[in-house]
Write a structure and sequence with these properties.
Elements lengths: L4 E9 L6 H13 E9 L10 H12 L5 E6 L3 H7 L4 E5 L3 H17 L4 E5 L10 H9 L10 H11 L2
Parallel strand pairs: 1-2, 1-4, 2-3, 4-5
Subcellular location: Cytoplasm
Enzyme class: transferase
InterPro entries: Cyt_trans-like, PPAT, Rossmann-like_a/b/a_fold
């Protein structure tokens, strides 16, 4: 894209860890919007491999080359975070039909909670369609190779955390 829409978009997730699929969506969304906020969820409903501070550091590292991406932690309702950061769009990624069902329901609920905000869905490039943080964590924990799914910095942290 050659021009960005003068809108703030929010891309929320746990990012445990941030994958090349997440990076792909982040780069593409950053190209569409004037400002993109990567909202790293505290993840109180999930047991994360990495602490919030570690996830923020990894996300900031991969977002650094993009001048219009801010990485910010959030807790609570997405609605409150989006409004606090003047968001007008929520960006969500879709990989499979299963993702679609969940995300479609979430978008509908978010529309009820914040009707002034639109949700857009992006699909990752073909190379990253099946990449998920859950799979990456599991493969790494079991001693498998995950270099093709994460950046070098994330890989180093994963190897440090999961080395047996």
């Amino acid at each position: 894209m050659t021009t960005r829409t003068a809108i703030t978009a929010v891309y929320p997730g746990t990012f445990d860890p941030i994958t090349l699929g997440h990076e792909d969506l982040m780069r593409r969304a950053a190209g569409m919007f004037e400002r993109l906020v990567l909202a790293v969820a505290v993840g109180h409903h999930k047991k994360t491999l990495f602490s919030l501070d570690e996830r923020l550091a990894m996300a900031q590292e991969v977002a650094a080359p993009l001048g219009n991406v801010e990485v910010i932690a959030f807790d609570g309702l997405l609605r409150d975070f989006v409004r606090a950061h003047s968001g007008r769009v929520v960006v969500r990624g879709l990989r499979t039909g299963g993702d679609f069902e969940y995300e479609f329901q979430m978008a509908g609920m978010n529309r009820k909670l914040m009707p002034e905000v639109e949700t857009i869905f992006l699909t990752p490039g073909e190379k990253h369609q099946y990449t998920s943080s859950t799979f990456v964590r599991e493969i790494a924990t079991l001693g498998g190779e995950v270099a093709e799914f994460v950046s070098a910095g994330v890989l180093a942290r994963l190897n440090g955390r999961t080395a047996k």
